[in-house]
TrEMBL record:
Belongs to the acetyltransferase family. Residues 3-157 form the N-acetyltransferase domain. CDD domains: NAT_SF. This is Acetyltransferase (GNAT) family protein. Transmembrane segments: none annotated. Keywords: Acyltransferase, Transferase. InterPro entries: Acyl_CoA_acyltransferase (IPR016181), Diverse_Substrate_AcTransf (IPR051016), GNAT_dom (IPR000182). GO terms for molecular function: N-acetyltransferase activity. It comes from Pricia antarctica.
Amino acid sequence: MIFTIRPSQEGDMPEVLRLVHELATYEKEGDAVEVTVDDLIRDGFGARKLFHCFIGESDGEIVGMALIYERYSTWKGPVIHLEDLIVTKRMRGSGLGSALLAEVVKYGHQLAVKRICWEVLDWNDSAIKFYESKGANVMRDWDVVQLDEAGIKNFLENTNRKD
């Protein structure tokens, strides 16, 4: 299958959101997506750009994407976080995932980042094998830690209490 990789455009965001929903369903979190097309447009193309996205296209259809954003490591300096690398089911095995990852790595190299990082679910063996085959270090001794909106609110309420 023939595909091309390009930077995303505002008009791609409905399809980007469709891919995000597809991934969330695959990861058994179909109801967890809260972001909207308007959010993606504002955050990717507004005055304060929060992410950069690469699009994979085949026959005029968006069939993959890689969404990244800049971070800073107190140990290393500038880094990039790969939030999602998504390839539609029909395009898996076509080389599109490798091409999207290569685009992210080239972009990171141009920015002179010290590291590119991302998470992968421990049960997603095919993704783990894919990343390891590209030379990535899957660090199984680190856990992801998060506070969601409710957790943030609860934290602040409990922190501000005077016992």
